[in-house]
Amino acid sequence: DQQVKQNSPSLSVQEGRISILNCDYTNSMFDYFLWYKKYPAEGPTFLISISSIKDKNEDGRFTVFLNKSAKHLSLHIVPSQPGDSAVYFCAAFGNEKLTFGTGTRLTIIP
Amino acid sequence: GAGVSQSPRYKVAKRGQDVALRCDPISGHVSLFWYQQALGQGPEFLTYFQNEAQLDKSGLPSDRFFAERPEGSVSTLKIQRTQQEDSAVYLCASSSTGGARSEKLFFGSGTQLSVL
Asked: On chain B, which terminus has fewer CB atoms closer than 10 Å, C or N?
């Protein structure tokens, strides 16, 4: 069973606009959430994280929102840039293990 | 080295063959993780080392999978009698902090294993 779900396999956004990537989870024991970014032929790189005691965390152009009651988090990128084109993985900590979603491929259109 | 290094980059194995995948973590990193990423899926946890101690191997799919980190630095993931369902990218990650809850994981580029 997929405990971390990214239901959109792909997303295309015009350069300069906002990109919104979504993630849903089912395990209420998850208490720390992360987003990783992956370019082709490279390993994932850490982007931003949020603890379950917060509902928002911001780092430059990247903001992560957490809605615990809905078991939903989202990553906002604004403004989107061509270098943001990559696969984005949502991940969650629970039981001392990191569980990843299946990823969303973001394409920024110049 | 500057980052996590994995070798080989690609490995093609015949079904039934044994393979060994190597991971060189960032120097001084205490924690080391192995993940398996099947096509179209996210990485899935296999095993975790803190220094030379294998503290969690609950993600290893069968007893054909074995990992070691004898001196607390380089790690090897061995798969015996490979099967087609073992085909995946195997990712290694390291962290400077101890504990399985390592936020800032540094991933290698992975080894893509294809079993024919």
From this structure: N
